[in-house]
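Journal club prep — side note

Before the paper discussion, L.F. wants everyone to see what a predicted structure for a comparable chain looks like in token form. Sequence:
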Amino acid sequence: MAENVGAGEPDEAHRRPPGVDDATVEALGMLTKALEYTERARGHLYAVHHMTGGADRMLAEAVRMLRQAGHGDQADLVEREILGRDVVPGMWTYQLVEAYDETYYQVFTAVEEQVREDLAAGRRHLAEAEMQQTARSRRRNASP
């Protein structure tokens, strides 16, 4: 079986700076986890944006097909009530994504970066790098 590449100490970018204690590494790890959840939430918003846009294009096709099949009243109803409709008052999905980015996401990422800069010289994923190092040490110690 192949050796893990880089199975030694974490690289400098992921090494705990001098004076940073365990509680700080754990707190930064939780902050990172919260950011990762926010990244996932943002991705879901983009999925809603894409899927809603796709549904709207399908609605336009359904309107065309209803008219072609002789169902003008139903086509008018779909076109009037659903096609191009705001998903919340005054907003389409792209505006939801933009509002999320400007109001929450950009602020979150800036604050997370500032906290990491203040407490750990800007280094990312310290807790994960230390977990990786511990796991690798266990494997090395368990090897015959």
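L.F.'s comment for the group: The chain has one domain: 24-130. Keep this in mind when we get to the figures.
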